[in-house]
Structures are given as C-alpha cells and as structure tokens.
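User: I'm curious whether this sequence folds into something compact or stays loose and floppy. Could you predict its structure so I can see for myself?
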Amino acid sequence: MYKITKTTEKGLMEIELEKLEKGSWINIDSPDIDELKEISNATGIQMDFLTAALDEEEKSRVEIEDDQILILVDIPFFRSNKDYDTMPLGIIVTNDYLVTVCLEPNAVTADFGEHNARLFSTFKRTRFMFQILFKSATLYLKYIRIIIRRTDELEKHLRQSMENNELFNLLDLQKSLTYFSTSLRSNTIVLERLLRLRNTTASHGIIKIYEEDEDLQDDVIIEYKQALEMVEMYSHILNSMIEVFASIISNNLNLVMKFLASVTILIAVPTLISGLWGMNVPVPFAENEYGFFIVLGLGLIVSLISAFSLWKRRMF
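Assistant: Here's the prediction. I'll summarize afterward.
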C-alpha cells in the first residue's frame, strides 16, 4: 500500500496518484508489484530503486542515476520485548518528489503525520530526507536504552536464580545489539557518502544543502555515531556478562557435584561397615546382645570422622 501527501498551509494533505503534484511525499509500505509499477509510471522512478528496499538482505548504500538518488539505510524495528531487528528503508529523491519504501509499516515514517506536519515540509526534499534519517537515529538510541534497561532487569533476576529462560533472553538482546551494530556502521558510511555528494555535480543538483540544513546534517551524523558507540560499548558489556554468568553456572555445578560426592562418601562408610557385619560368616559381636548397637555406633563414629576430614578439606 502507499500513501501520497504534501504539506500545505493548513497542514498535511493527502492526494491521489492521478493528481500527483510536485513536492509530494509518497510513502510505500509492504507494496505489491502492481502498486510499484503504478508509482514508477507516474513518477518516472526506475523499478530497481523502488524494489531495492524490499530485500531484507540489501546493504545500505547510495546510488545515483538519471536525476534520481536512492539512499538505502537500515532502520531499527521492534518485534517484542526481547527481540529487536533492522530492515532496509529506501529514500528516493528526485527533482519533484520524495519516496520512501519499506517492507513493513515502521515507526520512522509513521512519525511524520498530521500531528507534527508543521515540523517538516515535503517540498524541502533534502531537509525532509535528513529529518527521516534523524528520526531513524533517535529510534536507534531509544531502543538501545530499552535494551540496556532490560539487561539490567535480567541481571538482577540472574543474581537471585540462574534460569535458562533468562539466559536465552540475554542472548536475544545480544543478537539485537549485533544487528544494530552492523546496521549503524553501514548507515554511517552512507552519511559520509552524502556528505561528499552535497552540492556537487555528482548529485545532479538534487541534493542541495543550505546553511539551515547543515546543522541538521551534523546532528544526524552525531546521533548515528553516538548510537554506534553505545551499541559497541554495551555489546562488550553484555558479552562479558554472559561469560561471567556462564562461569558462575559452571562453578555452581562444580559445587553441587562436590557436595554430592561428599554425601556419597559419607553414605558409603556405614554401608561398608553394615555390609561386612551382614555376611553369612562368623563376625565379632555376633553373640553379643548389644552387637547391633555396637556396629551402629562404630558406623556412626567412622562417619563422623569422615565428615570431619571432608570438612577440613572444604568438601562441604
């Protein structure tokens, strides 16, 4: 599906494809091939640009061809409290339109609507492009902070009881940070490429950055670099945390096995003594009326001596 809007003095106005006007924003989410063909015929944008973001494995990049620029970046995607992912977002800038393409409805483009229409203009395509990139960067930072809080909660639970489910949740968060790290590195390279392209003949004059846009561009780069630094730092912390808890679990297992071995030894001592006196041959105290209690006391004394010896060796 797609939605075509443009900013006016009264706010954000939705228009039909047949009445497409210069300065419009075409937002495409989970489209089918027929919709893409309609947009391609109406705007002149080549199909390769429109379908680039529909491949989940597509890498972030910048392409320029026939007065059209494709900026492909990875945006963060929230799936569950323990699962975060990234997906490609294509931003196509032409002399007349700005088009965004994504596999699914996402929080980045959804943030630009009637409620904040006065904060952006679809006619200022370069500025609007950087505002979309800035929203993506702030969303990365938001999700990273959520992951950090979730990690702290899991750490508290793991300090009290070692459960497999909590460790699996930590592994899911670690995987999410790995996705974020890879995507942020690629996005940073894209921003550096855009920085070199601005106001050059290589961009065919489509990307024109004015003085008021330079601060926004710098903010975008700073936000992405900050997000990348946070991801790398907490990835190392999370890796160390998982290794520490794995060592703790292994150590706890060793303690349990040592305790069980000690209990086995203590049980084996009276079992051995009672087995010796239980043989069908003449044994001491066989005729003594207190023989049972003597053997029982002997087993108890030897067990106490064994327990003291194990305690001295810190087997308990």
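Summary: The longest strand covers residues 68-80. The CA atoms of residues 259 and 272 lie 20 Å apart.
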